[in-house]
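Hi U.,

Before I forget, here's the chain from the pilot set. I'm dumping it here mostly so it's searchable later in email.
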Amino acid sequence: MSTLVLYTPQNRLLDLAKLTERDFALISSFQYKIKRGERILLCQRASLEDEGAEMFVRLKNGRYAAVHFRGSECTQTHEISVESPEHRRQKDYWQRAAEDAGYRTSQEVRTGAGTILDVAIDGPRRTGIEVQHSQLQSQLAKSRTTKSFRAGWLPVRFLDSDRTPPWFHEVPALGCNKLPWSSLPPRRSATALGPSRFVARACTVTNFGTCPNGTKKRPKPHCREYHPYREPWPGLTVDDVAAMLPAEQIVPMRALRGDVHLVAPETLTWFEELTGQNGAYLPDARRPRGGRAADSALCVNPVHDQQIVERTCFKCDRAPAGPGGVLCLACTRAMESRPARDYYKSLPN
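Structure:
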């Protein structure tokens, strides 16, 4: 459900779910005063030229809501509410962190593409923070992200908790540890949850549920080649992220199965070297564009050696592989001590 409306008398885009007290008083004052054809409130989900975009304001059970006139294709009721104090403090936290890093910031910035950024950070990479204090449908999260992205912004959704809604890895997003937002928390007290690192792991049942080259509809057996494996990026605060996103020291990346992660640029480069695919984030793409998925055994760049985890034995799939990267020491000795005649016992006569 979209909560964005155009208030035509002032040509302002408003989010009905988080109005300022002044705007709440303005919109609620139109209770049952808007008539069809006046086009005062226009739903952003419908075409603005469509008569079905028009809405009026009603009060029911003590709650204000914007409702479409009869005959509109959009049957949603858009609840009208005041922005919570917690939401305001979360915006203030991001703005303070970005300004501490030396960036110019503004709140409630219209992108020109039908979206509003809670906090706009002006840096080498223009970044928009959208504080998500309420529930949001995946389709709407992706739609708003796409619009802001096309308008020249990197939109990042921020959750005030460690929960992960369905859209969390469908758009650039991060959360934080649980904090009392009854007042503005101290600097660097919000731990960033969601940024990722990737390492190479062998495609075995121990490391992956199914081969990452497959899909849900067409799963593939484990191939024993090396694929990117996600790990948390620890030690970051929201303050760090506010400084690093505009500086492109953190970038969005689309992984093998289409999930979106916030990573270091070095991780994106490493991912593309390992998989041979373009992992750069584009809102409309579901999988990285490029050749076939992971066709490389190991990244040969020595710079990335520290990111390669220990390989397991090809035979027993338990112990670490020894020199050569195929068999562990125990399996190698067992093979070497085996009599020559035993090599052919399993072959048909």
